[in-house]
Specification:
α4 crosses α12, α8 crosses α9 and α10 packs parallel to α12. 34% of the residues lie in helices and 12% in strands. The radius of gyration is 24 Å and the shape is globular. The chain is α/β, with parallel strands linked by helices.
């Protein structure tokens, strides 16, 4: 018969090995630390009186943005349709819901970019975002991608200017997007460097209850800092990760061990204990705050299923669930601790969804040589874009609801900016069933502070072997990821003297600010 457990007499190593993984349902303590990790940074007076949040929505696999934003002037659409081919070409706008959804551009009006003579539409699955574009809170940024330097076709073909390495590799391009360091070994992401800047004295989130950098999609390089002063904190769509079954005598024993180890002369033991102790404490704080939040009416803005328009699929959405938790944390983060919130001034969130590597089955007209409009507007990409549109719609409407509930003076919708990112775009010509790895593509910025209803950047010439093509329908970017990201960081509060600290290559490009915020 086994002896009764006397927890205080179990060696600390054996205690941690035996009980922590079991409590978390994980095979190794290292995995739980990755999810629980939350370290406080130097405490000093904050330098911001307002609240702002950035949300990176990463479209994993490479979004075919040639079908997300469609030129609708007759001549442009004719080039688009001929180049894409019958498996991919979306019908031109005629006012009906099964065509590209017409956008009412502010280009050329006072305070907005000059008109490029084009009109545009969104994919027919993106009705919600088309409405928000026309209402002025969504801005597409055109033909953007990773660049080491500005690059023309002649320079690309002649190899006279360096281009980013491993251009069409998923993992390399994801890293380059998230780091804005395409031409050097990476050790940090741009949001992580930003968090370092804001967490070193003075700490803008002084007194805040959670890390500045939060991920709903596991570990990522985007939020890793050079100094790691505000390490990414992983949370699930169901809430904070906690040591759920370490209670009573076991909890007392664990705390006793951690308290002792935090005073250890061994630096590794001391750091390990400090991280775990802080993680447990902060997970409990966050869990308590989420529970107290209850189920406000704005939860209904995040439906459990996505329905693709025009006869497409109905399915559940991990992206929608991630965004709902982000808004829950924004609602709490933007309130003071005294009011039951988390007392934050700045927060950065990372969410992600896969499925964008659409080599096959991109539309339901894949593999066909004749046009079929009802089939081409549905399929795998239509599902993805419907999910994106409805998720971002949930973000916008829920923030509006929170502002209404808080009464006059609340403008949380303008304090939150979401933006898309992806490995790369895809080839303009079809491969017969879908599209292959490309380079430059279009992205979206969403929020009340966005100068939306207009496009930013330069639309590519839609021609294989044309002035913007590498040779097989991969657009050479005319706007750099650095410029896009630096514009977001400037709005967030990084002043001009520190932009080059976050983006070391920004001086190579004509402007560090694209003007969409």
């Amino acid at each position: 018969m086994n002896k009764p457990l006397h927890a205080p007499f179990i060696p600390r190593r054996r205690f941690l090995q035996r009980y922590i993984p079991a409590a978390l349902g994980l095979g190794a303590l290292g995995n739980s630390l990755r999810d629980l990790k939350l370290m406080s940074s130097a405490m000093a007076a904050g330098s911001f009186s307002d609240y702002k949040a950035l949300i990176c929505v990463f479209l994993n696999g490479g979004n075919d943005s040639n079908n997300m934003i469609i030129p609708t002037t007759p001549a442009d659409w004719a080039n688009y349709s001929a180049g894409r081919g019958t498996p991919l070409a979306i019908p031109n706008t005629d006012g009906g819901p099964a065509t590209a959804r017409a956008l009412n551009s502010r280009n050329g009006t006072v305070g907005y970019p000059a008109s490029d003579g084009r009109t545009y539409g969104f994919h027919p699955a993106m009705a919600d975002l088309a409405t928000h574009f026309n209402n002025g809170i969504v801005a597409p940024v055109l033909n953007m991608g990773t660049l080491s330097f500005p690059l023309t076709k002649a320079q690309y073909s002649g190899k006279t200017v360096p281009k980013p390495p491993q251009l069409f590799s998923h993992s390399d391009q994801q890293t380059q997007w998230q780091t804005s360091l395409p031409d050097q070994p990476y050790v940090s992401g741009w949001a992580g460097r930003l968090a370092d800047l804001f967490s070193s004295p003075p700490d803008v989130n002084s007194g805040g209850q959670v890390s500045m950098a939060v991920t709903l999609a596991g570990s990522n390089i985007f939020e890793v800092g050079s100094q790691n002063l505000a390490p990414q904190y992983a949370i699930t769509t169901g809430g904070a990760v906690q040591l759920s079954s370490v209670t009573g005598a076991r909890q007392t024993a664990l705390q006793s061990i951690l308290n002792a180890d935090k005073l250890s002369a061994d630096l590794q033991t001391k750091a390990y204990a400090g991280v775990l102790d802080h993680a447990i404490t902060e997970a409990n704080i966050l869990s308590t705050a989420l529970t107290a939040q209850g189920s406000p009416s704005w939860f209904s803005r995040f439906p459990t299923t996505i329905t693709t328009p025009n006869g497409g699929s109905t399915f559940s959405s991990s992206l929608m669930s991630q965004m709902k938790m982000v808004v829950r944390l924004i609602e709490l983060g933007s309130k003071s601790v005294a009011s039951g919130g988390l007392g934050m001034k700045r927060q950065v969130f990372f969410i992600q969804v896969g499925g964008y590597d659409t080599h096959t089955g991109q539309t339901n007209n894949a593999g066909q040589s004749t046009s079929n409009n009802p089939a081409v507007i549905i399929g795998a990409q239509a599902n993805l874009l419907a999910e994106l549109s409805q998720t971002l719609n949930g973000l916008i409407l829920s923030l509006q609801d929170i502002d209404t509930l808080r009464g006059g003076g609340s403008n949380l919708k303008s304090a939150v900016t979401a933006f898309t990112a992806s490995d790369f775009a895809r080839t303009f010509p079809t491969n017969g069933s879908g599209s292959d790895h490309g380079w430059g593509g279009h992205h979206l910025v969403i929020g009340g502070a966005v100068k939306g209803g207009a496009t930013y950047g330069k639309f590519p010439t839609l021609a294989v072997n044309g002035p913007d093509d590498t040779g097989i329908g991969r657009w050479i970017p005319t706007t750099a990821v650095d410029q896009y990201s630096a514009t977001l960081a400037s709005w967030f509060g990084v002043d001009s003297s520190n932009i080059s600290t976050i983006f070391p290559n920004i001086g190579r490009f004509s402007s560090p600010n694209l003007g969409f915020l």
